[in-house]
Design goal:
Blueprint: H1 4-11, H2 15-19, E1 26-28, E2 31-34, E3 46-48
Antiparallel strand pairs: 1-2, 2-3
């Protein structure tokens, strides 16, 4: 089981820092877009909104 302190540490990390090793993100306004890491695609469909976590 994951400890509560570990969960709280992860919650305080920026989502883009967590994803950076796996997905190249580019900013589109307040949203970060990238290629989905789960399937092949040519245009980005993977969206992350840091303000919403």
């Amino acid at each position: 089981m994951i400890s509560e302190s570990t969960i709280n540490k992860v919650r305080n990390l920026a989502i883009e820092d967590i994803l950076k090793p796996y997905v190249r993100l580019s900013r589109k306004g307040s949203t970060l877009m990238g290629l989905c890491p789960f399937h092949s695609e040519r245009t980005g469909s993977f969206a992350v909104t840091p303000g919403k976590n």
